Every structure is written in structure tokens, then in C-alpha cells.
Amino acid sequence: MGGSVNTNSSYVTAQFNTALLQELIVIAVAMLAIAILSTVVLRRQASKALESGFDLPQEPAVRRLLRLGFGVIWVIDGLLQLQPQMPIGLPDNVVTPTAASAPAWVSSLVTFGTDAWLRHPVLAASATVWLQLGLGLWLLVANRGWASRAAGWASAAWALNVWIFGNALGTLFMAPISWTTGAPGAVFFYVLAGVAIGLPPMMLKRQSFSLWVSRVLGLGLAYFAILQAWPGRGFWGGGKDGAYPSMASEMGSVSQPGFSASIQHWFQTFTTNSSWIYNTLVVVVLALAAFGFLSGKVSWMRWGTIVYVALSIIDWVLVQDFAVFGGMGTDLNSMIPSALIVGGAYLLAKDAREVVVLEEIPVVQESRETRSLRFVGAIAATMVFLVGAVPMLLIGVLPGTSADVAAATGSGVQELNTPAPNFTLIDQQGKRFTLSDQHNKTIVLSFIDPVCTSECSIEAQEMKVASQQLGNDPTIEFVAINANPLYRSPATQRAFDEAEGLNNWNEWYFLTGTKAQLQSVWDAYGVGVEILPGGGMAAHSESIYVINSSGNITATWTALAEGSVNTLESQSAVSLIVSEVQKASK
After folding, report:
1. Does the record bear DNA damage in its keywords (predicted)?
2. Which one of 19, 34, 170, 481 has the fewest CB atoms closer than 10 angstroms to its CB?
């Protein structure tokens, strides 16, 4: 019975680690070439009688804050992408639940993104690691010129892509949206920062531009203050139905370090009776910050920034639970990025005012060697970024059936040529069965629950019909692994065979074993298993593998799990099995 995905598949993890290692080797070789070339160039420059340095315009304070701040954040985000469950877990556990209550048009955008990712999950996950690490390093190293501005635009472009297809437009269209829980989305602030870094530095010195930014920011803060203050949205009330206690309870139940869990338990207790205190603090601070930026006065903006940053840190700890400790954290959430944006807006206004007062732009001196090293570093960081960006661009055009179609029809075949993980179990007669002993045999491997009365029965019948169409060839074996940890005896397997008319089928093996043995096979083949309420049938992924006579997996797909053996869809499923077996037998 379908319904559970194993995001910790050892098979997928191994493929992910292999891809990362191969890409790391490519990067290391390229870095070595860049290092050798840059050493030669720098030595030639040093031997020439050239001026010792350059007088360059000072980088605007707002640009420096955003460039360095978001550079560090991108590096952290890239490192978080190294979690082994990312290839399958990111779209399944993070992206899809985000859009669960979204309008249809928003959900369709998210589905488009997850489909593209799931067509090639290992490639997508490894590419994201290098793309985000490269972006972070690029921003940190390149401090001026076209290379630095290009880093800003690249950052904004990738962040916009994530905000639309991975962040469901920051949940702005899913009530009740709240500044405290992350609206308008963490990566929205990455987009703003990237645009600011990509703009000509002189634009950041203009007082008219800084005034426009302050007013837009002030209106945005006022909007979220009004939303937070609006009654009936659950943020004023406590008890079990209150927004804050409910969030704290959910966060506190997630596996995480003891100190952060204790903070969540305290916050749940506090807000159960006093949610109004915390919500008042949020509303007042957002309103004060909005007033400061709408006033156009730098001194008031400074105080608005101070209280906003302080509240952001408090909310990051209490409501957003540090963002990375619980579950599958992929970024720092919205509070830290938004604090950088608000701080940057204040520096923008302050800097623009000082330029007007001084009537000149300060300059700094940078040595030729430092400038050359920054340029070389920018090239190296850009190369790391491209190692991720190029595959990510190709994912949209690489062949493969979309994930939703594959789940619905069983037609999403992934062609492979990789060794099948070995295992030893017992069949329905109690006889030992070892995969590696099946010499010169083509094997169709599936996972079936012996007490399932719906989809698993259909799948078994499809296997039988496929065997008949293949002439009941003794060199083609149909092997099913027990997918229920509660019913593991050979007698249960035999009862399933008798009920389905499979007991006289010589090419059919229904394998079982101890719970530990079965779990090892499930993990090796990426099959998630979960007991359903009532202790009967188990939910499990409907994976099918074709293994050739050399012991290599040649194809895998998700089995059809609906309808009956006489439906058009099941006929297509049988044809798919026959086709892939014939290809593997050549």
C-alpha cells in the first residue's frame, strides 16, 4: 500500500555523496589551476615598477553590510544542504507541506518546482550545495566592480527562484500570515539584498533613493503590524487553540538540542496564559519601526532599527526555534535576513545624508596585490557557483517524467546501471534466498504487504500477468519483499499467495525475515514503511526494480497503486514491466 517515502534511503544517500565527491574533485582541480595561474600573474606584477595602490571610492556601508551578511548566510545555507536526506526530503518534507493550504495557482508553481527536482533529485541536491556555497564566497570576496555586482544579481535571481517555486511566495497567500512565523519568506530578503548589491554603488548614495526605500520599508512594517494586531487571527489568545502555544508545542516536540527544546517548553507555558503580552510587544515594535522609517528622520530610523533587531533575535529564538535545530533546517529563517535588510535601510539613509553634508564621496586605498587577490578569489567563487548553477539550469530540460505523473501512472522510469544491494532472506517456503546467488537471472523486485487487500493484490496480479506475457521464462524471477514489519512469518506469505492464486507460480518468490533484516533491505532500496492505525496494513512506497543477470539495477519506477488488473492503467503497468525486463535481458 503506497503512502510513505523513505527520505533516508542509504542508496540515495550513497549516490548523493558520490556526486558531491566527484564535483569536489572537479572544483579542486580547477582551484589548483587558478592558484598556479594567479601566482604567475602576481609575480609578474610585483616585478614591474607600478604604483603601489589605488584610490577607490569607499563601498557604501549598506552594501558592505548586505554583501558580507548575506554572503555568510548563503555559505550557511549551502552547508545545510549537505544533510543526507536532502535529495528526497527537501521537496517531500519541506517544500510540499509549505504549500499544503495554498491557492491552486500557488500550489501549481510549487508542484512545478518539486517535479523538476524529483526528476533528478541527487543532481538537484548536489548542485544546490555548490550553487549556494559559491554565491556566499563570491559575495564575501568580490567587494566592488562588475564581479561584485554580478554576484548580487546572481544572488537575487536564485533567491527569487527559491521564493517562487520552493517557498510558495513566502506563504503570503496562505492565512493566517504573520511576521513572527516568517512572512514574507526568508528568501524574499535575499532577493532585496541581491538587488541592492547589484545596483550601481552611486545609486545607494542618492538621498531620493534612500527616502523611497525608507517609505516602502515603513509601509511594509506597518502592514505586518496591522495584521499582527487584527483580532480573530489567533495571536492574542492563549490556551490550546492559541497560535503561539500551538507553534511552541509543535516546535518543542521536534528532535533538537535540550536547551532549545526547554526554551520552547517555557514559551508554550508562558503564552498559554499570556499570549497577549508577547503579541503586544510584536505589534508595538513593528509599529515603532514603521513610524521611524516613514518619518524620514535618520535619528528615528536608528531607534526603529534597534528595537526591530532586538525583537527579531527574540522571535528567532522563541517562535522560529533558531530555525536550524528542529527537523530539516535549510536556512536561518526570516528574522536574521530581515534584520540585515532593516539595518541596511538605516545605513542607506544615514550614508545618503552624510554625502549631502560632506559634498564628497570618501575614498580608500587598496594595494594592487589585494585587488588582484580579490579578483582571483571572485573567479574561483564564480567557478564553484557555476558547478551548481549549470546542472540546475539543465534539470528543467533533461529527460524524465514528472514526479506527479510517475506516482499516478507508474510510468516514471529511471534508467540505471548500478549494482543492486545484496540481501539474504527466506522465501514463503522457509528456504534461504540470496540475491547474489541468482546467477544468470533477470529479477523484477517489488515490495508487498502480505495483509494488504487493495493495491498490493493488484501489483501481485500485474506481476503474474507480466510473467505470462514473458512466457513464464524460468530465467526471469519475480521477487517480492515483505513490506509489513508486524506480519513476517512464511505462513502469512503463503496465505497471501493462496488468496491471490500465486501458489503454483514457480517464478514467484515472496521473501521475509526478521524485522532488522527487512529494515536493512528497505533502507538499501529506499522504501519507507509505516504502520497504519489499527496495527494491520502498512503504508509503504511502491518501488519496483529490474535487476539484470549481472546483478545491476537497470530500471526503477513507482508502481501503479489504484484500479484493478483489468483497467487500462494496469495494462500499461504490465506492459511497462514486460518492456523493462526485455531490455534488461538483452
Report:
1. no
2. 34
Cis peptide before 485 (omega within 30 of 0): no
Cα dihedral angle (24, 26, 27, 30), rounded to 10 degrees? 160
Which cell numbers hold the place of 241? Answer: 487553540
Mind listing the pLDDT tens digit for each residue in 12-44?
677 788 889 999 999 999 889 888 877 776 666
Confidence grade of residue 407 (pLDDT, cut at 50, 70, 90): very low
Q: Tell me if the pTM is above 0.70.
A: yes
How many Å apart are CA 435 and CA 102, to the nearest integer?
A: 46
pLDDT at 78: 97
382 pLDDT higher than 50: yes
The C-alpha atoms of residue 146 and residue 103 are separated, in whole angstroms, by 40
**Between 369 and 304, the higher pLDDT residue:** 304
Return the CA Rg of the chain. Answer: 29
Task: Say how far apart CA 74 and CA 90 lie, in whole Å.
Answer: 17
User: What DSSP string describes 206-251?
Assistant: -HHHHHHHHHHHHHHHHHHHHHHH-TTSSSS--STT-HHHHHHHHH
Exposure string for 510-539, b = 16+ CB within 10 A, e = fewer? bbbbeeebbebbbbbbbbbbeeeeeeebbb
- Cβ pair 7, 92 in contact under 8 A: yes
Residues of the chain with CATH 3.40.30.10: 403-585
Least confident of 158-172, 220-234, 444-458: 444-458
Q: Which CATH number fits domain 403-585: 1.20.1300.10, 2.60.120.260, 3.40.30.10, 3.20.10.10?
A: 3.40.30.10
Contact 507, 477 (CB under 8 A): yes
Report d(CA 177, CA 193) in Å as an integer.
Answer: 22
Cross-strand pairs, 513: none
